[in-house]
Amino acid sequence: MSTATTSPSVDHQAATLKTLASIFGDGVYSATRFRDNLRLYVPPSRLIDLLTALRDQCGYALLSEVGGTDYLGYPGRTRSRFEVHYVVRNLDTAATVVVKAGVDDPDPTLPSAVPLWEGANWMEREVFDMFGIRFEGHPDLRRILMPEEFVAFPLRKDYPLRGRGERHNFPRLTRGES
Amino acid sequence: MAASLVDEPDLKTSSKQATWTLNFGPQHPATHTTLRLVLELDGERIIKATPDIGYLHSGFEKLGEHLNYNQYVTVADRKNYISPPMNEVAWHNAVEKLLGVELTPRCQYIRVIIGELSRISDHLLATGAAALDLGAFTAFLYAFNLREQIYDVYEEMSGYRFHPGYTRVGGVLYDFNDRVLDRIRKFLSNFPVVWRDMEKLLFRNRIFLDRMRGIGRLSKEDAIALSCTGPIARASGVPFDLRKDAPYLAYPDFDFDVVYCEEGDCWARFMVRMEEMRQSARIIEQAVAKLPGGPANLPIAEKLNLPDKATVYNSIEGLIQHFELIMPNRGFETPVNEVYAAVESPNGELGYYLVADGSEFAWRVRTRPPSFIHFAVFPHIIKGHALADVVAVLGSLSIIAAELDR
User: ipTM greater than 0.95, yes or no?
Assistant: First the structure.
């Protein structure tokens, strides 16, 4: 789209990078740009620090979106298997920043963003439900879309599109038992 | 009272035995869609509401990894089925940002028109159904009758009434013709009449007002903390609108206002939607009047659009292009990269986080569903209200279960 290169949000993003550099210095996160997106890759241990700085020092008040991706078999992949993205938005300048944190098997765990934004609650539950990534400090980390009995994580790349027959084996309640 | 809804302590009852639990849904006429609430009540006062969702989970995001960028438009359609064209616009907006495509001016206008039509369609249902749930049947019928004319526009432009599947990468299925524009003009001439009818029926309706005012209050701070966008946030005093603040498509060309209220209750959400419909009608009027000429789709040299049938049958370039896009293992070449793009849908920010691996299929299609995020607000704002207010608050949040569960 025409906004790809000429967007005014690019200036705001440069200002944000400057502020972040004054707080964190070098080596905490790495920044890349694609179209009008600014992406910051950060290790899980500094994720909450970075999100807090974005919210409190840079004015990114709204946590727009949280979601996961499984990069198992992704072309040219050298980093961790899973990544969780956090899209934060500045409501005054409309600028967005995408923060990405990578985690790996066997026990993918990230710190929860719920203490920062209550809105992260359900979105983190969905990431847990679909990818099995645990969020430490989440108040209520349960499955949200899939049933409680479900054991697999359906959006992982090693889970087949048509499932593994779970649907036929769900427990059935008769009217008397319910 | 606590400063934030989130920090508010659980409500207490005089004796534990006095509370009872009510199962609301998943099949209930007032939920309109398939969602379930477990309500803990003290008499008729709600102590705690626990939403249980997932009844309509259909794996739409997984399907996106197995359908190409044009095919997935049929699935995107079915997310928010009250405003399908807006889903299509949002989906192809993300795809085109990934590919770095700039649309033709005519196509940008067409997408604005179908997007705004779908916003009116959504808000007519949301306001009409809010009235229906509170006993005002007539306003609902007027609103639904007008929605039929929007379906007529969809039918004329694409051949499908409910899920048009109208946008394509770099363009649209068919260009607008005079019959489509006539239908839109007819709709625009009928819209103010119906709007005034609804105004007369609802704005001074004592029962309706009493059941909407002061119910389900959401403060500005809570709206931001809970990630609310769209009419829900604007009714709570967050005057943020992606069309104005981060313009996409041809929105900078149009004169319209961002509607907002500060009360944050059901009535404010209702009023924001009513007024937004008029703003959308203003945008459509301007867009129809100024609709640029020229082609709607990009030239076939861009290797993105499916060429129309006349070109396929009569020119070798068209035939090759058609073959390249349709045959398996050919199709689009995408950058190995990822992008987040969002549009202002009737319910709020509708975004796609799209990861591409260079092939014609997406690696990951993550939807940012406004209904999902707004339903998470529900247990906080219903606390302490009466059982009968559940339908008022649900209606004012306009939860669409297909988008909620995907």
Answer: no
